[in-house]
Amino acid sequence: MRNFKYVNDIKDALEKECPGVVSCADLVVLSGRDGVAMLGGPHFEVKTGRRDTRVHTTEKDADTYLLPHDAGVDAFLDTMAKLSINAPQAIALIGSHTVGRVHCVHLVSRLYPTVDPTLNASYADYLKIRCPSPNPDPTAVEYSRNDRGTPMIFDNNYYKNVIELKGLLRLDNALFLDPRTKPYVMRMAQDRDYFNEQFIAGMSILTEHNVLTGSEGEIRKNCQWVN
């Protein structure tokens, strides 16, 4: 989401075919949906007709809606509940961490000066190779992939990793260690269809949360700027 180059490439193509029809809000939702499918995950229907806000926003504005990288299970479940997303749906949504990567800035607190006891020891040794300094440069390309086994496949490997305490973020392993969420982690590790089913249910709610329609917003010409 921080790299608008690709979003704007898609927007430019859409504007040539059907100018002023597809909002950037719809574009982002559809791109996310298709990205999941392209990486081997489930394909699902989403509603369209969103409008873009007329208020200019920044990365910092967007970050206020995200949990901090060191959030725990309580904060995670409470945040999801406020969106009317239940526990299995929430745990399925965070399973999207099966792809992507985490910057060392968000990992070193689990490695230095001592290793987080909830982190697999051999995995911690690997992460120290990826993140050798307790003070990484936030602008440098220093990261670890969420899933070393199938890093570019949208599967249920995330849950298999956290069962082995190989989750990158503190929350990942905590979901396995917490008795409220452990049963869902275990089931999703064993049943990819169940994971897909709950992921689709969660995405259906998430993508329809607090949307603008009709005269409440606009269809931007460029996704970074209001018209």
UniProtKB/TrEMBL annotation:
Chain sites annotated for binding heme b: H97
Cofactor: Ca(2+); heme b
All residue ranges annotated as the Plant heme peroxidase family profile domain in the record: 1-227
Disulphides: C24-C223, C104-C131
Residues binding Ca(2+): T98, D147, T150, D155
Record-listed E.C. numbers: 1.11.1.7
Keywords assigned by UniProt, alphabetized: Calcium, Disulfide bond, Heme, Iron, Metal-binding, Oxidoreductase, Peroxidase, Signal
Pfam families named among the record's database cross-references: peroxidase
Note on cofactor: Binds 2 calcium ions per subunit. Binds 1 heme b (iron(II)-protoporphyrin IX) group per subunit.
GO terms, molecular function: heme binding; lactoperoxidase activity; metal ion binding
EC class: oxidoreductase
GO terms classed as biological process: response to oxidative stress
Family assignment from sequence similarity: Belongs to the peroxidase family.
Name assigned to this protein: peroxidase
